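Hey, weird one. I pasted the Cytochrome c domain-containing protein sequence into the form twice and got a warning about non-standard characters only the second time. First submission, copied straight from the form history:
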Amino acid sequence: MKATLFAAAALGSLLLTACAEQPQPPRPVSVKPPSEIDGIWYLDQNWTQDARQWYYNTTQGSQIMRYDWFMALQDPQTKAPFVKSVPRYGYTAGSASKWNPDLLPVGFVKDTDPDKTEWIGMTCASCHTGDVRVNGKTLRVDGAVTTGDLYGFISGLSAAVHATVTDNAAFEAFAARVLGPTAIDTQKITLFNQLKAFDASFATFVAQSTPDTPWGPMRTDAFGMIFNRVSVIDLNLPKNNRAPNAPVSYPYLWDAPHQPWVQWNGLLANANSFEALGRNAGEVLGVFGKITLTPPKDAAHYYYNSTVRGQNLVAMENQLRKLRSPVWPDSIAGNVDIVKAAAGQDLYKQNCESCHAVLPRDMTYTTAPITMVPLFNWAKPNDPKAVIAAFGTICAKGIDAAVEAKMVTINYAADPKMAVDALCRQSATGAIAGVAMPPKLLGGTPLKDPDLAATLLSNAVIGAVFGDIAKNPDLIGDLLLGDDAPAPWASASSANWSGSGKAKSTKTIDTSPLVSAAAAGKTTDQHRKIAKILTETAKTVSSVKESTANKAPLSKVDAAAKAESDLADTIKRLLAYKARPLDGVWATAPYMHNGSVPNLYEMLLPVADRSATFKMGTIAIDPVKVGVDSKAPESTFVFDTAKPGNRNTGHEFGASLTDSQRWQLLEYLKTL
């Protein structure tokens, strides 16, 4: 259990000695005023328009369906091209640019296979780019929360495909757009059979992705969707499917590349570019990336083939490292009350700063500190056996059983479903049971059957990264260049850019110790090349060896006790949610990890005084309470906090404030 939980807890632990910390760009003291382009107001977030459009329109390897099919598909409700209906599901409409000749929505992109087959896919911009409307003006906030409804989109796409294969007139029109007006019947029959097969498989995917309680806009069960994708579709094991019932808000991305741990529960380490690549590769697999999960056939091909575009992911991460939080736009949203904000600053220091660090705009920062806030009070927190037993009870019997048994003395403060699902879910590992990724020679642990779903995902992600490096060794140079890498949009000629392929690190890397170790294991040249990526310098390996060389080996009893203690510490750390810096928080409603609180004012109220239900779905914000404008006509989805996974409890740190103090603190939050 220890090995599997550790593997799930940090993909980066398998890439422990990867890459030195990258230099950080300075945070500007001041910002430029908002600028208007084609009716959209853009805030100064340290991105140029070219950088922004490149980020919106560059593929990561997601492949939903054939590109020509998608562009030819008609929406049965509107009778318009389906691509024009995507914003109807809350996604941001795209704008004309050299990067987006087909006017795809933001974050919907063309992906091209080596055999030139073209696919429509999604990229992280689709879920992490948000429009905000205030006082009649629409602001584009890069890295913010989309109003997109992912389930609405995939179910709508499935309905459009099904309508096409069940209506002859609809199919004839579709075929004419795909094949041309002179296509012969045999071509149409072939196309029909292909589309019908896709209709069946995609309908199954949608059915398997249907939550018991609708997510609605602005959130999704990210882990549930990724686990289902890898364990059900990629492994072809329907019995692994679980309803994705732990939705979370899309995290905002500024400062995220600088945080030591990512995901709401801090599941993944984020210390270097290798760990970031692993995390982003997992995201691709969750949004229609493809991976072939079969045992490696030999040491020369010890990886999984996938559609993950590693060089693009590295370039995107470098770009995100430059992204800065949006400053409250006084000229559009109204001036901040400085007198109240000054009083609120003191209240923030007293009530908030211990968890939510402040990142001053006039200082360069090298990390964005976070605090992991525990979800449980353990009855015996210093007793590893008791913590492990309580965790086992939570996974096997549920949280209430652990509380009743006094293993967890007080019930959760915030809704724990996401964190518990991420750590407890088990999956059959099918064809890759027993496969270690990386190989055992490099410290990997073979998959059990069943194993933790998070461990299975970690195995798949590492194999996909290895496969991308095996096919494109220049990815190693891109990883090591980091912020020194050239801006991709400066030399790329199309949105399907696949990395420079020529970037070379200026650093001297001595990997001979690893090569020797690999050679001792009788691995091949290809395998040794892959092994090199696990460290930036031999010094790191040497320092680890030196730190342990003079220590006496632990006895079996002591080693078992240490393993038990480490496991208990990992459980306590991961059954928690992350408190991060709140710069730009005004643009990130709704609040809490699951989007269960509509505005910042209610975040400062006792739980009993928060909205039990509220409407959402609009890009309009309430500039007074700072959050979702539930009265806007487009706010049609009713968020019910009584539904599973929607609990709005916890975070009552403003409950003891007076109402005047709440408004002062709220005014200060606008300035962060």
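That's the output from the first submission. The warning seems to come from a hidden character in my clipboard, not from the data itself. The radius of gyration is 25 Å.
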